[in-house]
Structures are given as C-alpha cells and as structure tokens.
User: Which sequence fits this backbone?
C-alpha cells in the first residue's frame, strides 16, 4: 500500500523500530480525524500582567484517539504537517475558535496557531477568509500565531499573506520568539502585533543569568518597536513580579489557567489582582 506521499506503508516491518511504527500508525489513524469528530479545542487564558485583566485565549488542539486517548499536539501536529492533514485540522481549529469567540465580549481575542505548512497552501487566504466570514465573528477578535519558520521558505510570499491578513483586521503574533531562527531583521520587516517569548526562557530565568539577559533583550526590542511582549509559561507569582519589573505587559501560563474547554461566562469575567 502507498500513502498520499507515495511512500510504502509497511506497518509491520520487523526492521522498523517501535517508535517509527507507531508514528506510521498514527499517521494512518489521523487521516479523517477531523471528519470523524476526534478533534477538540482547548482555550488557555492570556492576561495583562499589571492589571491582571483577561485579554484573550490561545486555542490549542487535542486529538482524542479512539484507542490511545488524548494525543498531544506536539505529537500529532508534526505528523499532520507531513501528511497534509494539517490543512483540514488548521481549518477546523479556526472555525471552532471563531464559533466559540463569537460569544465573548468584543475586546477578548482568540489566538489561533498557523502552521508553516499552511503557508504553502495556494488558496490559504481565501480559505481563512471564508471560514471567518462563515462564523460571523469580527476579524478584530482573531489573532494568528506564527513562528519564524513560516516565513523562511518564501519571505516575499509570507509578507504578502501577512499584510493581507492584517488588512482584514486580524492581528499577528510571532510565536516562540527566541528559539529557532528569530532574527531582528524579521521583526523589523514583518507587521507583527505581538511578540511571544518562548516559555523555555522564563523557566531558565530563575537559574540562568543568560536567560534573564535574553528576556531583557526581547523586552527591549518590543519596546523599541512598540510591540507588546507576552511571556509564556508563567507558573508563579515570582515570575510575574520579575516580568513586571522588566516591563513585560502580558502573560500566559498555568498560574492563570491551564488549557480548558470553552470558557464559561464566569471565566470571562475573571481577573487576577495585580501582584
Ligand atoms: P505553543 O503554541 O508554544 O503553545 C503553548 C504550549 O505551552 C501549550 O502546549 C500549552 O499547554 C503549554 N503551556 C502553557 N502554559 C504552560 C505553563 O505554565 N507551563 C508549561 N509547562 N506549559 C505550558 P500544547 O497545548 O501541548 O501545545 C504544544 C504545541 O502544539 C503548541 O505550542 C503549538 O506549537 C502546537 N499546537 C497546538 N495546537 C495547535 C493548532 O491548532 N495548530 C497548530 N499548527 N499547532 C498547534
Ligand atoms: Ca502558540
Ligand atoms: Ca509558543
Ligand atoms: Ca512552543
């Protein structure tokens, strides 16, 4: 048998190690997972660090595998990117996020992750627009999170797409900043509305002066470009105090809340007192 990439599917080749075999099996199982209703969307709150006010939620996908149970996106997203299933998943995530956010007060945004592979889709823009229009949510309530790897393949095309997205009123955050290929050049050239610092740096900041220096440098960058910075992975009050002292404006992490089902009316009114 051949899969959609034309590769041989030998699920039970004894020479193939267990890991590779299970990945292959997941790739097979993932096909049609959206249509079968196996995807779920969780929402993790994002807050203003100073006032504690809720500013929005990041939408995070989960796959409920019929046998294995909940599969983490760190496992299935890379597989979906390889097989092309990411197109169906990405569209489902956006429509589900929009369907939920339409019930929120208009100042709350929903942040949706866009895979670099989705940028390869010729009609990405038309598809995104169709999904948002169909849901009827204001484009002002949508934010896309992209990593720099989305830009690398074709900078000119990526810039065109991002400008069109922004012209619709959708905002754009650069995700996992500081990891991978983040460069100053990109920050200047691209119309980002927010910088998200990867949670790795905050975790290291307690013990590493180098990590502290990186957090400071990113915050200085944000300030000089006049782009708000959101710190990921906030788990303690001490981290908030550190970030506020350094001038960071926004945060997300288990301290404020784990990824959860669509927020209730009560959740939407919650605020954390300033530290
Ligand atoms: P990400 O975009 O960097 O998302 C943040 C991840 O950090 C989430 O993991 C979240 O649950 C986790 N996290 C948040 N706060 C804390 C904290 O205080 N402590 C710790 N230890 N972790 C925290 P999750 O949900 O497992 O997602 C992993 C990655 O999978 C995401 O990283 C994102 O790159 C990808 N992903 C998730 N959903 C989607 C999606 O719908 N589309 C695409 N393309 N990628 C997605
Ligand atoms: Ca993200
Ligand atoms: Ca991130
Ligand atoms: Ca990440």
Assistant:
């Amino acid at each position: 048998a051949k899969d959609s990439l034309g590769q041989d599917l030998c699920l039970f080749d004894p020479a193939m190690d267990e890991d590779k075999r299970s990945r292959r099996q997941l790739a097979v199982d993932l096909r049609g997972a959206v249509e079968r209703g196996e995807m779920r969307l969780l929402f993790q709150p994002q807050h203003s660090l100073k006032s504690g006010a809720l500013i929005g939620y990041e939408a995070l996908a989960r796959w409920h595998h019929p046998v294995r149970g909940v599969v983490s996106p760190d496992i299935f997203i890379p597989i979906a990117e390889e097989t092309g299933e990411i197109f169906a998943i990405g569209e489902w995530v956006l429509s589900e996020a929009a369907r939920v956010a339409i019930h929120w007060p208009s100042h709350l945004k929903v942040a949706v992750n866009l895979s670099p592979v989705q940028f390869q889709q010729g009609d990405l823009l038309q598809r995104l627009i169709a999904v948002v229009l169909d849901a009827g949510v204001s484009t002002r309530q949508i934010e896309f999170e992209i990593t720099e790897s989305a830009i690398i393949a074709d900078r000119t095309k990526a810039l065109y797409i991002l400008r069109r997205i922004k012209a619709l009123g959708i905002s754009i955050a650069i995700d996992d900043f500081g990891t991978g290929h983040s460069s100053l050049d990109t920050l200047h050239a691209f119309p980002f509305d927010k910088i998200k610092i990867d949670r790795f740096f905050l975790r290291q900041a307690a013990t590493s002066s180098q990590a502290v220096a990186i957090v400071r440098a990113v915050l200085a960058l944000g300030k000089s470009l006049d782009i708000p910075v959101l710190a990921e992975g906030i788990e303690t009050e001490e981290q908030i105090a550190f970030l506020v002292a350094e001038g960071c404006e926004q945060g997300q992490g288990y301290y404020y809340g784990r990824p959860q089902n669509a927020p209730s009316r009560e959740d939407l009114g919650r605020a954390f007192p300033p530290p």
Observations:
- The pocket of calcium ion (ligand 3) is lined by residues 175-176, 196, 198, 232 (CB under 6 Å).
- The mean pLDDT is 92.
- The CA atoms of residues 178 and 197 lie 7 Å apart.
